[in-house]
User: Fold these one by one.
Assistant:
Number 1:
Amino acid sequence: MILFIHRKDLRTDDLPAFDAICSAQENSLHVLILEPFLLRNERYLEHSGLNFLQHVSSLQQEYAYKGKLLHILYGEPDAILRSLAGVHPIHEVRVHADYTPYALKRDRLLRDTAHALSLRFHTHHDSMLCDLEDFMDWCGRSEPFKVFTPFYRRWRSFLSERFRPPYSRGLQELQTVEIHPQITDTFRIPGEINRLLTALAQPAQTMRPCHLLVDFLQTELQHYAAHRDNYSQEGTSRLSRHLNTGAISVRTVYNRLTENEHLGEEWLRQLAWRDFYLYQARLDPVFFNYENMYDLSALGTHNFEAWSLGKTGIPVIDAAMRQLNETGWMPNRLRMITAMFLTKNLGCPFIYGERYFRLKLSDYDNTLNRGGWLWSSSLGYDASPYFRVMNPVTQSQTHDPSGSYIRTWMPELSELSDQAIHLPRADAIVDLKRSRALAIELYKEILSSKGAASQE
Ligand code: FAD
């Protein structure tokens, strides 16, 4: 019997591990483990945790609809594996890889546990459009690409030549087995989380990512390049939360894109940024440790709360933070503007914003979120230069001239004219010009401190 553990692959089609299990022609036991660490700080009550639970709930429905069995457990994966192996004739474990520091540590432990129990342990790559090893081999490189544009050119050619279409064998072919009741008893889901799973099960039909994709490709893609930054309109795909939980595979997305009448080069570039960050997380040894590589001690956190509550007195920033807090969503351009404002104008270390987004974004992804925060705070590969500080007022005037986004999220300002609505309020917590000049000096110094902090 093969044990399959779901992670960021909350779907039932196009899964490399399912393809392998089909070939083995064996029974399989399918579990999804709610890991306490990933739901810590009551994350399950925030947009990011709720999005995850909603996808778990949909997955459960999908299994039931196809007449297959999925068992949801709560606990530490290695302890669960030991218990499962004690009561089921498992001889092999299959999972899809995850590359964050927590996931790598968890999987080392899981692999060691499997080997101690004399079980085989297989990891499949699934989350990237181009598998990292294949891509690097094909490029003949051992060093990572540090600049996006040359990376994109090679990545694009690799895809044209080597794209591996979605896997066609799936859950329908598998014989899933019932779990021993002793296991469900021992690793029972806490009541509050279980109630949420049940409550979130209702609207599952409304969030089919494939429909969202097809709809986007048919109606919005052709205008994407022109509309993507006009954040008062719905010009982007909104697929991120489905891609990050794995509810839709990036292979399926690309496959559909290539069948589409309009190829959408600009949209493909965004999918390339996704792979670019996922590669960095594996190739840049300090990707998850930049906060300790630089001396950030000159930065302060006293303005963080005003930023997080949308009370800075800069209308576009406050509107964006209100949208985030209320809905779990913020368009990409506003993520850049609010992140730069926090790290540069307000001089706050990026990790504060990163942690806040971790709870609030419904499409939160550890790697992509860190990539976005590193870029905005001029750290990491191909980041925004330290002297680039987006002015939120001019950004707002350029991308939403009539201020309709601000009017939606800050109705108290809706009576203002198209000119006045973008301007800082009398009680703004910071002077944009002065704070910009200060930020440039500060970040110049921070970037020259590389290594100093890590040696201390
Ligand atoms: P579309 O514009 O339709 O793009 C299609 C897909 O391409 C997206 O779903 C996403 O997978 C990928 N993509 C688009 N833009 C980017 C980008 N700049 N970097 C990497 N991949 C991209 N994205 C997340 O998925 N999770 C996060 O936690 C996250 N945090 C961010 C934090 C900051 C500070 C910044 C600046 C960006 C962050 N992003 C994050 C990237 C980007 O904002 C979102 O991927 C995008 O807004 C999702 O909207 P969409 O699905 O409509 O994208």
Number 2:
Amino acid sequence: MSEKILVIGANGQIGTELVVALRGIHGVDKVIASDINNPTYAIRNSGPYELVNVLDKDNLHHIFEKYRPTQVYLLAAILSAVGEQKPKMAWDLNMTGLIHVLDFAVEFKTAKVFWPSSIAVFGPHSPQFNTPQYCVMDPNTVYGFSKLAGERWAEYYFVKHGLDIRSIRYPGLIGWKASPGGGTTDYAVHIFHEALKKGKYESFLSADTTLPMMYMEDAIRATISLMDAPADQIKIRSSYNLAGISFTPAQLADEIKKHISAFEMGYVDTDPRQAIADSWPKSIDDNSAQQDWGWKLEYDLPKMTADMLENLKKII
Ligand code: AKB
């Protein structure tokens, strides 16, 4: 089947890389990048682009009608830290935006939809180590409970409408091509930029805050392989746990010091993102993803750090 793929939220951290990867696989004209803002430098003039506001039903309907996409990736969202500053806006965008896309995907018979969830769906009473696919979930951020509610909607549309929706609970994502947009795990990207520019960094999370993270190469590969897997292998229609690599800011700093020996790490005493990080898992069990669609991680902490520094130093 000839694909027509619509990526909504193409200017973001995931979108920037996903659009390039999908265009490499399916061809430039088959992938329509879209966002509420004008295209960022990374995807400007590189293929079809549309201005889309997921909260504007008429605008979104027009885009579905114009392209009749076979696949939709809905990446537009407000992340954890910004979500706490703008809670109602985060709920509205993360929830209403999703429901608009689900409804139009059903109306226009979109073959497959991808929507990202997050480790933020877990909360203080979830098991902190090796957090299982199914367990107590009591997220206490607006972002976290909008993602948890979104997972329920995803499964609901699969059951009630037969919509082939697929999802991953991403850990914190680390990449050199685009900046993260207001999350709790953003320190793990900023640190690389500051290490190369200034030789030092002040982390807003404490030295011993362990969080699950993932290199963007792995995240994009996971996303595309989940979307390529035969439908009958996708047993979970809410969202799949993905483990990634768990480390603390101090461990990341030590790894960076292996490449930049003079690198200095400091820590900010109080930051509201610390409480969010403390409510999230420290490590994740992703057995279901491994078993159902053959997921396997490639980048560990040393490999990711080396690749990040090598690529970033060419562009900053
Ligand atoms: C955030 O920190 O909000 C995101 C996430 C883990 O979903 N990176």
